[in-house]
Write a structure and sequence with these properties.
By secondary structure, the chain is α/β, with parallel strands linked by helices. The chain contains ten helices and 13 strands. A six-stranded mixed β-sheet has the order 6-7-8-3-9-10, sandwiched between helices. It has a four-stranded antiparallel β-sheet with strand order 2-1-4-5. Strands 12-11-13 form a three-stranded antiparallel β-sheet, covered by helices on one side. A hairpin with a 2-residue loop joins β9 and β10. It is globular and about 70 Å long.
């Protein structure tokens, strides 16, 4: 569904992306992770044609972004990080406007709007001004808008940033449902547990380079499935092991109290980038 070859973006002397190569499969939920400044937003801007690459190529659904821009716009759906709904219109009017821009005929437009408002649980608020909506409701409406023209791939840029945990999980359920119906989803997130819960594979970017690419489970196995933690003089110490028995053996050799737990994607992120994710 998506293929990046040598994707490079420079701003003067600064390299935001340094020759990224990756592909996303049909129906896959794929995550882009990385600390601030890693190149996630730059990648999304290139994929959604808000910026042009310095070098390399992008293909979406077999179409070349450099030659088939108009056709590509018809097969992508975009939910940006920042809320960009028209607050003075109702939920239904926001979707109506989007449908007209995509030249969806009146009958299909009405049917599709009703279906999507029900899907994101906003049918009872369809005639309410968007300005009265909560942040979570606005985010769900943006997802409905992005799906209105039946895209082949959906780009979600920080889809749950700033939302409380309960609302965040409602968004997760929407993404899982879409994936179950065969839609390809690419998301960027600062929430490691979000990527772990949703993504079949993740790519970790750092300083514009791709430093890891695999399933969350495989990345954890590569690091070590078990981690021993103990308090040091200045910080928490960690050591990774492929088997619990080896972790226990090491734990028993320490002169201080230690704990054993399973490794997770955040451990992989910290080991590779040297930085913890700061949830905003």
């Amino acid at each position: 569904m998506l293929e990046l070859v040598g994707l490079t973006k420079k701003y003067g002397d600064r390299t935001a992306l340094a020759g990224i190569n990756l592909s996303v499969n049909n129906g896959e939920v794929f995550g882009l992770l990385g600390p601030n400044g890693a190149g996630k937003t730059t990648t999304i801007r290139l994929l959604t044609m808000l910026s042009q690459p310095t070098a390399g190529s992008i293909a979406i659904n077999g179409l070349s972004l450099s030659h088939d821009g108009r056709q590509i716009k018809a097969v992508i759906g975009v939910v940006p990080q920042h809320l960009n709904l028209d607050n003075e219109l109702t939920a239904q009017e926001n979707l109506e406007l989007h449908g007209r821009l995509h030249e969806i005929n009146a009958l299909e437009r009405k049917t599709r709007i009703d279906e999507l408002l029900e899907f994101v649980e906003l049918s009872d608020r369809k005639n309410d001004i968007v300005q009265t909506f909560s942040g979570g409701m606005k985010r769900r409406l943006m997802i409905a808008r992005a799906l209105l023209h039946r895209p082949k791939i959906l780009f979600l840029d920080e889809p749950t940033v700033g939302l409380d945990p309960q609302v965040r999980r409602r968004i997760w359920e929407l993404v899982r449902h879409l994936s179950g119906e065969g839609l390809t989803v690419l998301l960027t997130t600062h929430y490691i547990e979000e990527a772990e819960a949703l993504c079949q594979r993740v790519a970790i970017l750092d300083k514009g380079s791709l430093i890891a690419l695999d399933s969350p489970q495989a990345l954890c196995r590569g690091l070590g499935e078990y981690v021993v933690e103990w308090e040091g003089e200045e910080h928490l110490n960690t050591r990774f092991f492929p088997e619990r028995s080896k972790a226990a053996q090491f734990c028993n050799s320490l002169a201080v109290t230690a704990t054993i737990r399973r490794s997770n994607l955040e451990d992989v992120f910290v080991e590779l980038t040297g930085r913890k994710v700061v949830e905003r």
